[in-house]
Design goal:
By secondary structure, the chain is an alpha+beta fold. The protein has helices spanning 7-11, 25-38, 91-120, 129-153, 155-178, and strands at 2-4, 16-21, 43-47, 51-56, 67-75, 80-88.
Length: 179
């Protein structure tokens, strides 16, 4: 088993990892289902041949409650199964934060452009443009801070999910070696 993790994975909002293994996708899916049943006190999830979604069971349900999305593929070059893992919030939360970043970013660009053009043509038709662009920058900063706070709050659960993924592979490979 070989696990790839880079420095950029620690910086990303949605850290990723890759595990190369010799087991087939179908074997991994069957095994992952049984492994999840063994750990059903801690974890819940939905598993199929191509993609799986695992979450940590917790008493509180905050907005960043992380998920582990596992996707299995066949690497034709190395003739191995590649298990890709992505940590992050639910798709709805992720989409909402991306939407906010997009709206605030475009609004900031619009406000600063209007302000700049106004200054260039020595007009005073849009006195609100500079204030609006500053407000949009503050909104962007607040959105970024909220995302970072959520990531920090879910760090322990993300570590549990990482250990789940590694342990599931390690245990399966040990079982294969014994059998």
């Amino acid at each position: 088993m070989q696990i790839e993790e880079t420095t950029i994975d620690h910086i990303r909002s949605r850290p990723r990892f890759k595990i190369f293994t010799d087991i087939s996708r179908e074997e991994y899916t069957v095994y992952l289902k049984s492994f999840l049943k063994e750990r059903d006190q801690e974890f819940s999830g939905n598993i199929n041949n191509e993609a799986s979604l695992i979450t940590v069971k917790t008493p509180e349900n905050n907005y960043w409650k992380p998920n582990l999305a596992l996707r299995t593929e066949i690497d034709a070059e190395e003739n191995k199964t590649v298990i890709r893992g992505i940590f992050g919030p639910s798709a709805a939360v992720w989409t909402f934060f991306m939407f906010l970043n997009f709206i605030f970013g475009i609004s900031w660009m619009l406000g600063i452009t209007i302000w700049y053009v106004e200054k260039q043509i020595k007009s005073n038709d849009f006195p609100w443009a500079f204030s609006f662009s500053i407000i949009m920058l503050v909104c962007l900063a607040l959105t970024f801070t909220a995302a970072r706070f959520g990531k920090w709050k879910g760090k322990k659960q993300m570590q549990q999910l990482r250990e789940f993924a590694e342990e599931s592979i390690r245990k399966f490979e040990n079982y294969q070696a014994e059998g």
